[in-house]
Specification:
The protein has about 425 residues and is of the alpha+beta class. Helix content is about 50%, strand content about 20%. The chain has 16 helices and ten strands. The strands form three sheets. It has a four-stranded antiparallel β-sheet with strand order 3-8-10-9. A four-stranded antiparallel β-sheet has the order 5-6-4-7. Strand 5 and strand 6 form a beta hairpin. Helix 4 packs across helix 13 and helix 9 packs across helix 10. The longest helix has 24 residues.
């Protein structure tokens, strides 16, 4: 039986669901019920969500939680987090409270420059191409004025455009490398619109440039696209306190803990296998806030991991030191975020998140997101170097195990009580649950 279908996108949502359930499921009625139970009871709200993407069948829920008690630059925040992983929100909240009692987090936006490129092939003399570029450079700005005037009113726009020779890496390959400031907008559409106009200007002007021969006039634009690698859209977040204040547990020596923590960070700096998991923990915090505020977490992930490899070896995004009996822990991370445009003006929960954060500017949101990543990292490394990661994680995860095995309310109470001071693993929880039955 063929499973291909023509004209699927033109079917109604109900017709799409009927085809999917009847083609792929042994019990189409049950499958359809699973899909439709996630529809919002408000038709208008459901229609809004349906139109975010194509071929929508239903909504896919993620838990939306909050981490209170964040103090960033002496301002208090409750941070929204959308994530499915147990213990992340709890860990962020615990770290926020710990550092809130020690002066809070400090965060600074270092730069806000974003990048876009026109990639093209030119078969000819570079010196002539460079002269041509310098001649027409003002036209790149002039021909995009219709797109940039509103951004310029807000203090943003095109910062610069450079010609880059990449022919040592690919024959005849050059770039227009442009930098932008998009203020409170993430700016992807703005940047791509400008780049596509740059490409048209480049091709059209080349045809009219008298110093080019026929080959040189035929510049071939390959593509025009922003880059999600934004090493100059950078934010720093940090915490510090006397080493003597590093432990809340009387059984753990503060100096020993601080030194062990610093060595754990150094291991992540030099060992890529550890660095990947280390940075994944940072992204638990970053991605959760990025999602809750309607930003593109895939773009953030790609840019952040590229930045972690900037030295030529993948390394830790966070760093720690002890100097003069002061412990300092910090992160520098590239974050291209927006607080206007896109989902920020459409998704009701995104608007809820931004209002809860006090309607932050893009720069303020950069600080909040970086701080949440640092808090998450602190919580994870603290667990790893003291009690071990599983103790706290499995305590949070135990409800998922119980729900997976349809535990009753009474069974949950007994299981949670039994494992209050007992090692937790998936198999041990299941075995104990079975013993109750």
């Amino acid at each position: 039986m063929t499973q291909n279908i023509k004209g699927f996108s033109k079917l109604s949502k109900e017709e799409k669901i009927n085809w999917i359930t009847e083609t792929y499921f042994s019990n189409p009625t049950e499958a359809k019920q699973i899909v439709t139970q996630y529809w919002n009871e408000s038709e208008n709200l459901q229609k809004l969500h349906d139109e975010f993407i194509e071929n929508t069948l239903t909504n896919f829920y993620l838990p939306y939680g909050v981490a209170p008690n964040f103090v960033i630059n002496d301002k208090s925040y409750t941070v929204p987090m959308a994530i499915e992983e147990s213990s992340v929100v709890a860990a962020a909240s615990k770290a926020a409270k710990f550092w809130g009692e020690r002066g809070g987090f400090k965060a600074t936006v270092i730069s806000t420059e974003k990048i876009g490129q026109v990639h093209f092939l030119f078969n000819g003399n570079f010196e002539k191409l460079h002269s041509f570029f310098e001649t027409i450079k003002p036209k790149f700005f002039a021909n995009t004025q219709a797109f940039t005037k509103n951004m310029q009113k807000r203090g943003g726009g095109i910062l610069d455009i450079k010609l880059k020779d990449k022919t040592t890496e690919l024959n005849n390959y050059y770039q227009l490398h442009a930098t932008f400031n998009t203020k409170d907008s993430m700016g992807a559409n703005f940047i791509n619109t400008c780049l596509e106009q740059f490409a048209k200007t480049l091709e059209n002007e080349a045809q009219e440039y008298s110093d080019f021969n026929e080959d040189e006039k035929n510049i071939q634009v390959i593509m025009s696209i922003l880059s999600n690698y934004v090493p100059n859209c950078l934010v720093r977040a940090e915490v510090s306190c006397p080493v003597s204040q590093m432990s809340e547990d009387t059984s753990i020596d503060s100096k020993e803990f601080a030194e062990k923590f610093v060595n754990a960070i150094k291991i992540a700096e030099i060992e890529p296998y550890r660095a990947v998991t280390h940075n994944k923990g940072i992204m638990n915090g970053i991605d959760a806030v990025v999602l809750a505020t309607g930003n593109d977490f895939r773009a953030i992930e790609a840019g952040v991991h590229a930045y972690a490899s900037k030295s030529g070896q993948y390394s830790s995004l966070s760093h720690a030191k002890i100097e003069d009996d002061i412990f300092t822990f910090w992160i520098e991370v590239p974050l291209a975020l927006g607080t206007i445009g896109g989902l920020t003006t459409l998704h009701p929960l995104v608007k809820f998140s931004l209002e809860m954060l006090g309607q932050p500017s893009a720069e303020e949101l950069m600080k909040i997101v970086a701080v949440t990543g640092l808090a998450q990292n602190f919580a994870a490394v603290r667990s790893l170097t003291t009690t071990g990661i599983q103790q706290g994680h499995m305590k949070m995860h135990i409800n998922n195990i119980l729900n997976q095995h349809q535990a009753t309310k009474e069974e949950k109470i007994q299981v949670l009580d039994y494992f209050k001071n007992t090692t937790i693993s998936h198999s041990l929880v299941v075995d104990y649950l079975e013993s109750l039955r």
